[in-house]
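PROTEIN DESIGN WORKSHEET
SECTION A - STRUCTURE
LENGTH: 384
TOKENS:
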């Protein structure tokens, strides 16, 4: 990002650039900034903010063509007014976009701008439409038809989208790996989750926070259809029970993060299923390592072993705040099974706030620190 440069500074920089070309014996022939080589222009624009890039695209035809061909990522969340009109004007220009962030602080976007983006930007893989309160299902249908390469979609805080439109989108965007539906109370239904499980088997990151119509039927179908899930947020999904967690523990052995905040129907049975899933993950890892050692060379085998070593780490974050039915032995079993879960200061990844009965639960490193302290006191009984 470049700030505070006045016209005289730009002219001086340009003259220096021309002199370097002449003195170096080069053949650089430039009369003004519009003659900058495309590669150099794109390099300069990579150092400035997206607002400056948009302004640069309007300098001249050459700059517009360079920006349109080279720009693959754009964030216009900074636009506080007239974002819809801005997007309508940009869509025909920036046809090579792969990542587009349209997060809004106040609702601005309307369906026509999303339909324009979908019509022109067929290479989109990452789209953020969060807090788009004015959009309707028409936007999802447009994205479904025109953006089949989509792997990441954020429509959190969009309560107007329906589950039929979301299910339809998943039937076209089958490469989705990350989907944020937090607060999408109409879109995130069991029907939609069943469509996701059927169409998007590569799904890894799914946020269903505060989607209070989700039940065990939807989560169970996810567990069976999306075995590669790494992160699942079910915070505020008050209807789910142990059945959901048991299915996830059984089928999603790569799960790293699980949010169960305020899921008060979760009991010790769910916790023990998570704790026991550790042994299953280790068995799968051992079998995979054996197979890899048979079919791979030493180099690829080392890479494989490194990958599976990471997979074996298991849960790294678990939020069970306000799950008041849980008891210390069950939660301690989970903590003991997954060393990456921490209760110690500065490393809280086992979140138990609001569960006063769980204050006795401690991670392995906290227990080890306690043992060391006790050992030191025993070794030096007269120490002060």
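SECTION B - SEQUENCE
RESIDUE ASSIGNMENT:
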């Amino acid at each position: 990002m470049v700030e505070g440069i006045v016209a005289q500074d730009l002219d001086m920089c340009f003259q220096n650039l021309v002199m370097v070309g002449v003195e170096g014996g080069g053949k650089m022939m430039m009369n003004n900034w519009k003659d900058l080589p495309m590669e150099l222009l794109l390099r300069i624009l990579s150092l400035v903010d997206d607002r400056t890039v948009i302004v640069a695209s309007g300098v001249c035809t050459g700059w517009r063509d360079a920006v349109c061909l080279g720009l693959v990522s754009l964030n216009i969340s900074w636009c506080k007014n007239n974002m819809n009109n801005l997007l309508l004007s940009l869509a025909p220009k920036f046809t090579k976009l792969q990542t587009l962030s349209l997060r809004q602080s106040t609702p601005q976007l309307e369906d026509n701008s999303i339909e324009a983006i979908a019509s022109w930007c067929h290479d989109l893989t990452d789209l953020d439409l969060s807090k788009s309160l004015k959009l309707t299902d028409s936007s999802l249908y447009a994205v479904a038809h025109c953006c089949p390469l989509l792997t990441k979609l954020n429509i959190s805080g969009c309560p107007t989208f329906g589950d039929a439109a979301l299910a339809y989108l998943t039937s076209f965007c089958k490469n989705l790996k990350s989907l944020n539906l937090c607060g999408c109370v109409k879109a995130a239904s069991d029907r939609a989750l069943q469509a996701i499980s059927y169409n998007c088997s590569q799904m890894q990151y799914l946020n269903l926070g505060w989607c209070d119509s989700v039940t065990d039927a939807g989560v169970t179908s996810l567990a069976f259809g999306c075995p590669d899930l790494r992160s699942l947020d079910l915070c505020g999904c008050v209807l789910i029970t142990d059945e959901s967690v048991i299915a996830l523990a059984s089928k999603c052995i790569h799960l790293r993060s699980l949010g169960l905040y305020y899921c008060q129907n979760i009991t010790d049975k769910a916790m023990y299923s998570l704790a026991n899933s550790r042994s299953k993950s280790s068995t799968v890892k051992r079998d995979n390592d054996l197979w890899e050692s048979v079919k791979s060379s030493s180099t690829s085998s080392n890479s494989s072993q490194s990958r599976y070593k990471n997979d074996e780490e298991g849960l790294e974050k678990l939020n069970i705040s306000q799950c008041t039915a849980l008891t210390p032995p069950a939660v301690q079993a989970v903590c003991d099974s997954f060393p990456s879960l921490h209760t110690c200061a500065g490393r809280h990844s086992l979140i138990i706030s609001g569960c006063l009965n769980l204050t006795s639960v401690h991670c392995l490193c906290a227990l080890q620190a306690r043992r060391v302290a006790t050992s030191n006191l025993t070794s030096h009984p007269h120490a002060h």
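SECTION C - NOTES
The first helix runs from residue 7 to 23.
Residues 344 and 365 are 8 Å apart (CA to CA).
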